[in-house]
Amino acid sequence: MVAIIKYGKSLSRIFNYNESKVKSEVAKCILALNYPMDTEDLSITHKLNRLLNQAKLNENLKNNSMHISLNFAKDECLDDDKLKSIAEEYMEAIGFGEQPFLVYKHNDAAHPHIHIVSTIVKADGSRIDIHNIGKNKSEPARMAIEKKYNLVEASKQKRNENTIKAIDIISESKTKLETKNAISKVLNAVLNTYNYTSIPELNAVLKNYNITADRGKESSRVYQKNGLYYRLLDADGNKIATPIKASLFYQNPGLKFLEKRFLLNEKSRKPHRYKLKNKLDTLLNTNIRSINELKEKLEKEKIQLICRTNPEGIIYGLTYIDHENKYVFNGSELGKAYSAKAIQERFKIHQRYSSKETNGASSERNDYSKTNDFLPSNHFQNTFLEVLLQAENTYEQLPYQLKKTRKKKRKRNHNSHL
User: Fold this and answer.
1) What is the model's pTM?
2) Domain chopping of the chain, boundaries
3) Where do the MobA/VirD2-like nuclease domain residues begin and end (predicted)?
4) How far is 238 from 212, CA to CA, in rounded Å?
5) Helices (H), 40-115
6) CATH for the stretch 2-157
C-alpha cells in the first residue's frame, strides 16, 4: 500500500474534484465518518459544509485541508467493506480518528485506490500537528495495515508516477474527461516536484509526458485575459485533442499559480545553478566534440539536454533538466558560456583545432619542400602572419666598433662615512 498525503487551502476544490469523479461515474463515496447522518443520506451540501464549518474554527491557518490517497497493487481485490476498514484504521493511526472525513473509491486507474478528504482543524479550533506525519505516523500505520490485511508492501509496488506518458493513455476514442484525468496525473507528478521559473522551462518537463501548457497567441483572447490551457501532444510535438482550461483541474494550475511557483523556485535554485555549471564545465573540458556527445555524457549524470530548433533544424536554444534534483535551467540562465550559440561555437573551435593538430603539422612540413604553385591560396597569408609575429633573432656578430663598452660601476663603501 502506498500512502500519499497532500495539504491545501481549499477544501472546496479537493471536495469538488472527488465529487466530479462521482458525477462521471468513475468514483463513489463509500464512507462519511463523524457526520451526523449515514453516508447514503448525505447530500453534496451536507458533506462539504461539515468540513467547511469545522475549518472556519481556525481562520489563521492557510493550509487547512488534507487530501490522502491510499494506493493498492494492481492485482489486489478489495471490496468496499475492507476499504472502509483500512481507511478508518489508517486515519485513527495518524491522529485523525475524531475528524470528519470522506472516503472515495476511484475506478479511473489500473490499480485500486481510495481518496480521503478531511481538515486539520479540530472541533475546539486547535490544529492537528502534521510535522513529519509521513515518517512518524503514516509509515508505521501503512506497515501495520499491510501486515494485517496481507497487502503488497509499498516497496514492492511499481511507482510509475514519473514515467506516465499521457499519449499512451489517450486515443482518438477517449473522452474529454479521460484526457483531463491523464493530464491531471502528470501535473501531480510535475507541478510541485520540479523547480522551474518560466512556462518554457515547465514545458520542457511536460513535453516528456506529451503535454504542454499553452497560453495561445499574443493576439488571442486567452492570452490577453491571462488564461492558460493544457494540451496533449503527439509523438512529433503537434497539439492534439481538446485543450482543457487550467481552472478545470483541481490543482487550478493557472497563470497565477505558476507565477507564485516561479518566484518560490527562483529563490531556491541558486545553489543548484552552480552545481550544474560545475558539472558542465567538467564535461566540456573533456574530449567532447559535439552536442550529441554532450547529451550522452549528461544522461549518465541524470541530466537531460533539450535542443530547441527552428523549422530549418537550426539549434537556437538549450534547456538542461536535472531529473535527480528536479531542476530546470535554460542555457542563457546559467550564463552566456552555456547558451546554444556558445556551446556550438566551442565545438567548432575544438574541431578546427583537432583537425589542425592531426593534419596540419605533417602536411605543412611536406608542403614547404614543394613549389609555391601547389600551396593553398591562404597558406601565404598564414605564413606571412607567422613571420610578422615571430620574435626577431640576430645571429651575426656586431663589429667591434659598433659595440658600446660598459663602464664598470665603482662600488661604494657604505662604511666610509662612519
Assistant:
1) 0.56
2) 2-157, 169-268, 270-344
3) 17-151
4) 10
5) 44-55, 80-93
6) 3.30.930.30
